[in-house]
Amino acid sequence: MDIWPYIWVAVMVLLVIAEGLTAQLVSVWFAVGALAAAIVSFFVPVVPIQFGVFVIVSLLFLLLTKPLVQKSRKIDPEPTNADRNIGKTAIVTREINNVEGTGQVKLGGNTWTARSVNGSVVPEGTKVTVKEISGVKLMVLPESKV
Fold first, then answer.
1. Last residue of a domain, one of 73, 103, 122
2. Rg (CA), the chain
3. How many CB atoms neighbour CB 90 within 10 A?
């Protein structure tokens, strides 16, 4: 009795378990290749041929399905209410200094932590334009440099 069908099934089971332990699609393609090799091993006792089937089926399955999987999993970031502040003018209430990690601006009645987009020090009282939001920080430029 040939042991290779059992080895290929064991490989497939291990790959399926590995797939189940990950949050991404990682080994499902190779599990299908191992299944194909297990089926072939019942009819062709030559291990290099079985391994070739494993590699070819795995690669074909990967090449045919990976683009579809990536397309279906593409997630566009959801805009937040904070995004409405991009392009608005704010007033620096605490000097913005990226090196020291300081800076606050007042925008629409709210105080935000702020950093300079270009790394320049922005003194208190300066009008700035919000260019982007990074986490909970507004990334700003002085209005004269916008």
1. 73
2. 28
3. 23
Sign of CA dihedral 35, 37, 38, 43: positive
53 lies in the same domain as 85: no
- Read off the CATH number of the domain in which 104 is found: 2.40.50.140
Question: Residue 87 is inside which H or E element, if any?
Answer: none
DSSP strands (E only) in the chain: 89-97, 102-107, 110-116, 127-134, 137-142
Amino acid at 99: V
Band (pLDDT 50/70/90 cuts) for residue 77 is low
Q: How many domains does the chain have?
A: 2
Range of the domain at 55: 4-73
Q: Is 140 exposed, middle or buried (0-12, 13-18, 19+ CB in 10 A)?
A: buried
Question: Over the stretch 34-72, which tens digit does the pLDDT of each residue have?
Answer: 999 999 999 999 999 999 999 999 999 999 988 877 777
